[in-house]
Design goal:
The protein is an alpha+beta fold and about 150 residues long. The chain is built from 5 helices and 6 strands; from the N terminus they run ββαααββαββα.
Length: about 150
């Protein structure tokens, strides 16, 4: 039985069944990826879970959007209700402490419909790509999604 060959779905090599991890739910009793590809996949997955990798991603984000970091740090002393997030409608210096308080789920929903425009430090509508220039305009647009 071990001299039967199978194609790896990841690297496309033709290998013997003994080169594939076992899987009870599969027809032939083996996974679709070979041991080597599985090791690579798990290594990448493990790397993404490591604290150092998360620090690197965080550092890159902070360097890419320093205005967002300054705005968030300016709100550290503002009391936030449990289950709520502060949504900045603008990251311009004069609007740092001007935010909209939203539930965590609503905050996730509205970010599907707005796009951050770094040169203006404001959000754009995802449908028309028009900049939401004021807090009122921003709030009226996001109201349709929450």
């Amino acid at each position: 039985m071990s001299n039967i060959s199978k194609n790896c779905k990841k690297c496309f090599k033709v290998l013997y069944l003994k080169d594939f991890p076992k899987c009870k739910t599969s027809k032939d009793g083996h996974r679709g990826n070979c041991y080597e590809c599985e090791r690579l996949r798990l290594g990448i997955r493990q790397k993404k879970r490591s604290k150092e990798y998360k620090r690197q991603v965080s550092r890159r984000y902070k360097n890419k959007y320093p205005e967002k970091r300054r705005a968030v740090s300016s709100l550290h002393k503002v009391q936030k209700k449990k289950g709520y997030h502060f949504h900045h409608w603008s990251y311009n210096d004069e609007h740092f402490r001007d935010f909209i308080e939203l539930t965590v789920s609503d905050h996730k929903i509205i970010h599907r419909h707005i796009i951050y425009d770094q040169p203006t430090k404001m959000y754009k509508r995802s449908d028309t790509m028009r900049i939401l220039c004021s807090k009122k305009e921003h709030f009226e647009y996001i109201q349709q999604f929450i």
